[in-house]
């Protein structure tokens, strides 16, 4: 899917468009089975990227006070408390249950077919040489189109009223949209993103996407052999509705339990249908005008 | 044990979610955006009506439609710019032309239509250079239908189920609504004997809008629930009632000034209410994770059933 119509020549896609600067596609593999919910990733991200403090709220529910990804939270640790059948049945209870916690650090998926990038009318959103998707804050004019375009609800616009009064004037990037850059600046210097660096259990793994996919495939097999039949990969398939994710996951339950869409599809996949209907409807309108004007001239 | 504590337990209607939180983000657009959809649509259809009236020699109707077009399109860019998070950067829209972004395509359509309409209106007011005026009217008239329908493509090219899954019908809803409002507004400005074509366009547009809306809601199935209940339901019902009443009024009493005034106002209000309803429905559709999760889950199940036909029945 070509991101821009360049009159005359067809623009080169990634990575050819980068010529000699082309790099392998980099990404995240988040293995949620070893996430301990420490939120070091959230903090490291905020520190490194100077993401402003949100209004600190107490959700009153599990340990998730971040709530969701947004312009001001580029990593979000989800906590899911579940009552599940106990692993070791006890004699006392007929249907023994135990509590299990699922924890998962969510992030921008850096989609192969990125809706945000496709619909951005200013070109502020672009694909880097690492195959990641980045918003240029100095080009974005805050039209907000990327926000409902994203099938994962990752992006939002940074508004003053979301920030504590104390954050005041020095907050950068007001009125424009923000999300994870996969630490583009660190990647340029050959460093790993701040969240992966800070993760104490290696739940967040950074590397070349091909290598991560291989590693993830082995990990899911290993878990299944250990009896975790519910372990599955999410977003590793290059043939899914978004062409696979640059940041994919190993989950222990259905994706929607973690707040992820079960079958995401990039809306621009249906572009021919969308434009086709718009042109047909325009033709119908023109026909109605002609009929209305001609109608009285019998 | 409360339901909230047992994360991912099925909700009453059988789907699972992350504590009922939304999967998608609601748009940040203000209601001036659907107001623009209404004005831009009216401007576009009026430009086409004006051109057709000019070609058939109905100068009074051509003038009325040109003025409707001018009023509506002049108000459009300020609304679009005001809704940006960084309005002073609106020119960044003109850095590129992107077919994958209906907003980008639309920016160029609005810009070109605005220039053509401005020229046509100025020459109409001055009463000079009829050929240049016809050329400007031709450009505005040719772009008009797409000015009316690209906004539907803009909504359809998002992940919001009530918009994206209506991608085949929504442009027809907007086309009909635009024809209704442009016909009504032009009939209000022209004398009734010359405005017959405008009245016919208003009635045809209203009929198209009502039929396309019904078809859209039927095809959407449960995804159309935001139109049936919730914040968009009242607007949807009002729009339908206003448009139906306006159509009837235009058919029965359109030949009189008072009849056109009443029926035209009803049609304009119905058209505006329709855009507001579609807009609000999108917010509802994004806010409630049920729409995203259930529709995608069904898709996954259909795919699984297709790949293993032997396991069925």
Would you write up a description of this structure?
The complex is a heterodimer of chains A (298) and B (313). Chain A has 298 residues and is of the alpha+beta class. Chain A folds into two domains: 250 residues, Alpha-Beta Plaits (2-Layer Sandwich); 29 residues. Chain A is built from seven helices and ten strands. In chain A, the strands form four sheets. A four-stranded mixed β-sheet of chain A has the order 8-1-10-9. The longest helix of chain A has 24 residues. Chain A is globular. The model of chain A has no long low-confidence stretch (mean pLDDT 91). Chain B is mainly alpha-helical and 313 residues long. Chain B has a single domain, classed as Up-down Bundle (Formate dehydrogenase/DMSO reductase fold). Chain B contains eleven helices and no strands. In chain B, helix 6 runs antiparallel to helix 10 and helix 9 runs antiparallel to helix 10. The radius of gyration of chain B is 22 Å and the shape is globular. Chain B starts with 31 loop residues before the first helix and ends in a 6-residue tail after the last helix. The N terminus of chain B is likely disordered. Chains A and B meet through strand 2, helix 2, helix 3, strand 6 and helix 7 of A and helix 1, helix 3, helix 4, helix 6 and helix 7 of B.
Task: Give the topology.
The complex is a heterodimer of chains A (298) and B (313).
Chain A: E1 26-31, H1 40-49, E2 75-85, E3 97-107, H2 115-119, E4 125-127, E5 133-135, H3 146-149, E6 156-157, E7 177-178, H4 184-188, H5 194-198, E8 204-208, H6 209-225, E9 232-234, E10 247-251, H7 271-294
Parallel strand pairs in A: 1-10
Antiparallel strand pairs in A: 1-8, 2-3, 4-5, 6-7, 9-10
Chain B: H1 32-55, H2 59-82, H3 102-126, H4 130-156, H5 161-164, H6 170-189, H7 196-220, H8 225-228, H9 233-253, H10 257-287, H11 289-307
Helix pairs in contact in B: 1-2, 1-4, 1-6, 1-10, 2-3, 2-6, 3-4, 4-6, 6-7, 6-10, 7-9, 9-10
């Amino acid at each position: 899917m070509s991101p821009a119509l360049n009159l005359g020549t067809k623009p080169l896609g990634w990575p050819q468009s980068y010529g000699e600067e082309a790099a392998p596609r980099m990404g995240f593999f988040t293995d949620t089975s070893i996430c301990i919910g420490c939120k070091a990733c959230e903090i490291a991200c905020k520190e490194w990227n100077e993401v402003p403090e949100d209004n600190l709220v107490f959700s009153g529910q599990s340990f998730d006070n971040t709530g969701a990804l947004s312009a001001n939270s580029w990593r979000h640790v989800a906590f899911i408390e579940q009552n599940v059948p106990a692993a070791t049945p006890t004699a006392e209870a007929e249907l023994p249950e135990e509590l299990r916690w699922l924890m998962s650090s969510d992030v921008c998926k850096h989609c192969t077919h990125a809706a945000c990038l496709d619909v951005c009318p200013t070109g502020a959103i672009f694909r880097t040489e690492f195959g990641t998707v980045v918003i240029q804050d100095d080009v974005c004019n805050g039209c907000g189109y990327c926000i409902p375009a994203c099938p994962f609800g990752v992006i939002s616009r940074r508004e003053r009223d979301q920030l504590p009064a104390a954050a005041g004037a020095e907050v950068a990037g007001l009125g424009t949209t923000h999300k994870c850059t996969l630490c583009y600046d660190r990647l340029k210097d050959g460093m790993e993103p701040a969240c992966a660096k800070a993760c104490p259990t290696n739940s967040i793994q950074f590397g070349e996407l091909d290598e991560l996919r291989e590693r993830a495939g082995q990990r899911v097999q290993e878990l299944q052999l250990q009896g975790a039949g519910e372990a599955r990969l999410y977003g590793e398939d290059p043939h899914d509705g978004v062409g696979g994710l640059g940041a994919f996951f190993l989950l222990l339950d259905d994706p929607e339990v973690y707040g992820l869409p079960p079958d995401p599809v990039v809306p621009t996949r249906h572009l021919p249908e969308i434009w086709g209907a718009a042109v047909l409807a325009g033709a119908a309108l023109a026909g109605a005008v002609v009929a209305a004007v001609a109608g009285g001239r019998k | 044990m409360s339901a909230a504590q047992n994360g991912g337990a099925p909700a009453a209607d059988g789907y699972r979610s992350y504590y009922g939180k939304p999967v998608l983000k609601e748009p940040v657009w203000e209601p001036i955006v659907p107001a623009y959809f209404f004005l831009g649509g009216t401007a576009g259809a009026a430009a086409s009506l004006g051109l057709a009236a000019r070609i058939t020699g109905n100068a009074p109707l051509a003038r009325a439609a040109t003025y409707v077009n001018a009023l509506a399109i002049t108000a459009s860019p300020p609304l679009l710019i005001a809704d940006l998070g960084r309005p002073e950067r609106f020119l960044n829209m003109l850095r590129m032309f992107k077919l994958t972004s209906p907003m980008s395509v639309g920016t160029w359509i609005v810009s070109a239509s605005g220039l053509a309409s401005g020229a046509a209106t100025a020459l109409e007011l001055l009463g000079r250079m009829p050929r240049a005026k016809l050329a400007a009217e031709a450009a505005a008239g040719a772009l008009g239908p797409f000015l009316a329908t690209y906004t539907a493509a803009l909504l359809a090219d998002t992940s919001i189920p009530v918009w994206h899954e209506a991608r085949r019908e929504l442009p027809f809803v907007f086309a009909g609504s635009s024809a209704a409002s442009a016909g009504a507004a032009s009939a209000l400005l022209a004398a009734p004997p010359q405005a017959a074509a405008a009245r016919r366009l208003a009635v045809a547009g209203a009929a198209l809008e009502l039929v396309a809306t019904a078809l859209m809601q039927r095809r959407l199935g449960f995804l159309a629930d935001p139109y049936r209940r919730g914040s968009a339901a009242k607007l949807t019902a009002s729009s339908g009632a206003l448009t139906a009443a306006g159509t009837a009024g235009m058919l029965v009493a359109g030949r009189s000034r008072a009849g056109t005034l009443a029926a035209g106002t009803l049609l304009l209000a119905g058209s505006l209410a329709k855009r507001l309803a579609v807009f609000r429905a999108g917010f509802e559709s994004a806010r409630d994770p049920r729409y995203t999760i259930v529709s995608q889950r069904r898709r996954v199940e259909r795919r699984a059933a297709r790949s293993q036909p032997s396991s069925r029945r």
